[in-house]
Design brief:
Blueprint (H helix, E strand, L loop, with lengths): L16 H23 L12 H27 L4 H29 L4 H12 L9 H51 L3 H16 L5 H17 L6 E2 H18 L4 E8 L6 E2 L5 H5 L13 E9 L3 E10 L11 H13 L4 E7 L3 E9 L6
Parallel strand pairs: 2-4
Antiparallel strand pairs: 1-3, 4-5, 5-7, 6-7
Helix pairs in contact: 1-2, 2-3, 2-5, 3-4, 3-5, 5-10, 6-7, 7-8
């Protein structure tokens, strides 16, 4: 989560993207103003009078350069393969710099009392030879080289800023993707599963089966966790494991006598954190397709090993006949593995093997410790 910037009442996440961009630009141009003041006050380039006109000319074009690169030339032309437009934009900036500095120098000469040395410098660099220099290669090359020194810092900042903009958009897309994934997973807890469970409950109620109360309790816990506790980025591992227990208890009640379900948890969940509904798809899709499976014995094994810094999930399904629905290529398994790559990059391993009658999965996940 973003950290507090100043005081308990202000957080960066309360600012809109537009407000954040404006504040960052104000900060950037304040820093650049200081940079240009120092640049034009260096020992070998020092003037006796005010230098703010030169600083303002350079800063003004730096603003144009930065916004032109970050918001137009790089994203809309260069990265979309419109090389000629990007080249044309670069030429416009080079000629624009020459014209901008010429106009600034003429206005400064006309209206601002400046040091004679600065006046000669501005006239010699930016006024003399204009506009004939615009159509001559050597003067324009000299103008471009002259532009690089004061504009190199804004150029570097432009590319860094664009990288930050891209990274911010990527993170926003990833957050949206993960939110959609969680919504999808909630929807997959799953209408057919709920209908079947309610049907089982109805049958048990009519038969006065004493297990009906357990079905209600397990289903209530499952729905409470799914609907009210999974919007956070991380949840306690203990709650995720309780959710798996409730889910398996309901599956056990629904499955025929030929299905054997075993579940074992080793270790203690003592404050570790995990992304919500991360383990469930791997377990839930293990049962997918049993309604269409050929009659015969089938065994479902689930084992969870909890360590202080990691959790391991071992799943296995063994059936006498080929299983009608593939596991490894299931869309929900693919989505769960993408989610692991986004939320736990370099912090997980998945070993998955599948043949006609057997599936084995071994997932190891490094955990987030509890933060008080």
């Amino acid at each position: 989560m973003p950290e507090t910037l100043a005081g308990p009442g202000f957080r960066w996440q309360r600012l809109s993207a537009r407000t954040t961009a404006i504040l960052l630009q104000v900060l950037l141009w304040s820093l650049l103003w200081g940079f240009y003041v120092l640049w034009n006050s260096r020992p070998n380039y020092h003037f006796a009078g005010p230098i703010w006109p030169l600083v303002l000319m350079q800063l003004g074009f730096a603003v144009v350069l930065f916004n032109g690169l970050v918001y137009l030339i790089i994203p809309r032309w260069l990265l979309r393969g419109r090389g000629w437009l990007a080249l044309a934009g670069a030429l416009v900036l080079i000629y624009g710099y020459r014209i901008w500095m010429y106009l600034g120098a003429r206005l400064t000469e006309a209206y601002v009392p400046i040091d004679p040395v600065l006046r000669r410098t501005l006239h010699g660099f930016y006024v003399a030879g204009f506009p004939a220099d615009l159509v001559r290669f050597t003067p324009m090359l000299a103008s471009f080289v002259g532009m690089l020194a004061p504009m190199l810092f804004p150029l570097v900042v432009s590319f860094l800023a664009y990288a930050l903009v891209v990274d911010r958009r990527r993170l926003a897309l990833e957050r949206d993707f993960l939110h959609l994934e969680r919504s999808y997973l909630k929807a997959q807890i799953n209408p057919q599963f709920l209908f079947n469970t309610l049907g089982t409950l109805n049958t048990m109620t009519h038969a006065r089966d004493p297990r009906a109360g357990d079905v209600v309790l397990h289903l209530a816990d499952l729905m409470r966790y799914t609907l009210y506790e999974t919007d956070a980025e991380r949840v306690p591992l203990s709650r995720e494991l309780e959710f798996l227990d409730d889910y398996l208890a309901l599956e056990h009640l629904r499955r025929p006598a030929t299905a054997t379900i075993t579940h074992e948890v080793s270790g203690e969940a003592a404050g570790q954190q995990i992304a919500p509904l991360l383990l469930h798809p791997f377990l839930e899709r293990l049962f997918a397709g049993q309604e269409a499976a050929l009659a015969g014995p089938v065994t479902f094994r689930s084992r969870v090993l909890v360590r202080p810094e990691a959790v391991e999930l071992h799943l296995e399904r063994a059936s006498a006949a080929p299983w009608p629905q593939p596991y490894a290529t299931d869309a929900a398994i693919g989505a769960a593995r993408r989610r692991l790559q986004l939320q736990y990059p370099g912090q997980h391993t998945v070993e998955l093997t599948e043949d006609a009658g057997r599936v084995r999965l071994h997932l190891t996940l490094m955990l987030t410790p509890h933060v008080r």
